[in-house]
Amino acid sequence: MPDIAEIDNRKIRLIIHLRQAGITNTDVLSAIERTPRDLFVPHHFETHAYEDQAVPIGLGQTISQPYIVATMTDVLQVEKSHSVLEIGTGSGYQAAVLSRLCRRVYTIERHRPLLELAEKRFNDLKLRNITSLAADGMKGWPSIPGNENSFDRIIVTASVDGDPPVALMAQLKPGGIMVIPVGSQAQNQMLRRYKKESEDVYAVQDLFPVRFVPLLPDVPRHNSYSSSDLEELTA
Ligand code: SAH
């Protein structure tokens, strides 16, 4: 296992790399610097945690490349007072980065074993402003009375084929921003930004090509995971 000084060196090199790659938002860079990505990847990937690449986290899912996390966070224009909804908790890394920049992060993951690991990380890091849920995020956040216009920002970290789920559009506050990868095949996706100008009126902007796993419906049953699936999550 690399020692703390070595991890710090790798982290500093990653920040320098992100700056050179065009990330200039110092709040975003500082949130990334304060979030130990080595704690969000399976043990045998720890030495690669600060390289600018996606890493498998088990159950066929990945933690996104740091450059994509930084860019998505940047284009979301998060403010300190904001409530942010994330669909696709995965490792919890994106939620942890966002939690340093806003009032509260609500995050939904359909794979309960992934969510439980992410929750342990939030707890270990004392990130108390993250509320998480194992559910189908296509349906939006379930327990807010009225359910409408609840979030200043929504970030979806899995791709949709077509329009974003209506429940998510409904839960975005007027003036709010949603970023979501749109496109059917992994090679053919665009990160799209929706700004809700008013009820049912959106300004839509295609930002840049991305590669995300698909947004899938429902929550798999616990007995659909084999013991080797579950071992892979932390191995
Ligand atoms: N943001 C994550 C990476 C996301 S990978 C991170 O920082 O590590 C995409 C995640 O979306 C996967 O974990 C996948 O299980 C989840 N997902 C796919 N469809 C979903 C849905 N309908 N609701 C909630 N999560 C979903």
Could you list some keywords that capture this structure?
235 residues, two-stranded antiparallel ribbon, 26% strand, 7-stranded mixed β-sheet, single chain, binds S-adenosyl-L-homocysteine, alpha/beta, Rossmann fold
Give a quick rundown of the structure.
By secondary structure, the chain is of the alpha/beta class.
What does this structure look like?
- With 235 residues, this protein is α/β, with parallel strands linked by helices.
- The protein has a single domain, classed as Vaccinia Virus protein VP39 (Rossmann fold).
- It contains seven helices and nine strands.
- The longest helix is centred in the first third of the chain and has 17 residues, at 4-20.
- Bound molecules: S-adenosyl-L-homocysteine (SAH).
- S-adenosyl-L-homocysteine is lined by residues 61-64, 87-88, 90-91, 93-94, 108-111, 114, 136-138, 157-158, 213, 215-217.
- Measured between the Cα atoms of the first and last residue, the distance is 13 Å
Structure annotation, total helices: 7
CATH homologous superfamily heading: Vaccinia Virus protein VP39
**Low-pLDDT segments, ≥5 res:** none
Largest sheet: 7 strands, mixed
Radius of gyration: 17 Å
Q: Percent of residues in beta strands?
A: 25-35%
- Helix/strand order: HHEEHEHEHEEHEEEH
Strand count: 9
Strand order of the largest sheet: 5-4-3-6-7-8-9
- Proportion in helices: 25-40%
> What is the fold-level CATH name, i.e. the topology?
Rossmann fold
Category from helices, strands and their pairing? alpha/beta
Residue-averaged pLDDT: 94
Enumerate the distinct ligands: S-adenosyl-L-homocysteine
Instruction: Give the CATH class.
Output: Alpha Beta
**Number of domain units:** 1
Shape: globular
